[in-house]
What does this fold into?
Amino acid sequence: MSAEAREALSAGEALSAGEALSAALSAASGLKRLFDAAGHRLYLVGGVVREAVAGRFLAGADLDCTTDARPATVRRIVSDAATSVWTQGERFGTIGCVVEGRAFEITTHRAEHYERQSRKPVVAFGDDVIQDLARRDFTVNAMAIDTADGALIDPHGGQDDLVAGVLRTPLDPAVSFGDDPLRMLRAARFVASHGLAPDDALVGAVRAMGDRLDIVSVERVRDEFEKLLLLDYPLEGFRFLFRTGLIGRVVEDLARHDPAEVGRITAAVAAEPAARWASLFVRDSAETASACLRRLRCSNAVVSSAAALIATQARLAETGSSRPDVRRFVASSPAPVDAAVAFAIAVATASGRSTDRLLDFAGTLTELRRVEDVDDLTLPVDGDEVMAVLGLDPGPEVGRALAFLRERAFEEGPPSKAEAVEALQQWRATDYCAEP
It folds into this structure.
């Protein structure tokens, strides 16, 4: 690679396809030597090849490889040179390792398919890289670089499809999706992330075979859909899911909504799981979101955080921007207040609604933070101290006194301990005997 190309790579600039392919080969050179010495072929495959063909190479990206060596042999080849080896995927033919500071996943050439009613792939190992590439999901991912001579192996026209902006499967899409139904959902991600237009055969197969997604585990469906959710611009992926009817197989509650609006709102909020999941349900309720996310077996943390954002967004729409209003909201918000405000503003903007009230709220919050600890309105006295100041025994009067102090803090700001004691004494003199 030229000095200019190395500088461009370091700066993250675009490269020519040749320079990007050279960078990918260079990154795999240490692993290549190990396989050469063992008498086995090694090929770069997957995303690194697709991106290199497009003139991109991510310097820190993990690299996927395929080889004719069987998994146990791969493990032996890399064991002495690797600083780390992981074998969780060995039964599916994949060994992971770190060699010369670079992470690799090395998979034995394979052909796999799902039994008609099985959720687990049936793996058969092979010796032919061409056969392996035919079993890949899309033509743009069915290219390989032979580390022996740097040759690009592209039996299904993936390079031409990248240039033309077309998404196709290497085999008939009915065969490809029959092998792994999750590829139907993955197609939405590639439509959105790479600006690829699905060809008619692919669209027709998804429409006809959508029910095949039901044999895939809920967790795998959730994880693949979340990858779409977290893209910077997922709109075209949502259009594909709605167009093919696949959205009803993933998130049934969304099927009645406008895909353009769903995509806009999703792209507008922070690109983190809870916010993106929550964005799907802003027209519904926190309860609807929680039920759906539990069906998808999202983590408890994601479910609770997403529900809190939705509930908080609804409350913000009815909350004023006075100092007491802001203090009360912050004290009772189920979601981190800054995240909740940012979420609500993003949703309103993407939905074409006014953000004036929200911006006023945010402005008041900023002003309060300059003069007081609005994020921590913990009272400076507790129940025991209230009883000591007022000469009370344990009972409901103590709760009334604390409620008085909390309301005073909302109206006037957090008091010092001396101010709280004085306020209690005044309250005892004037309101203590009043009915609650």
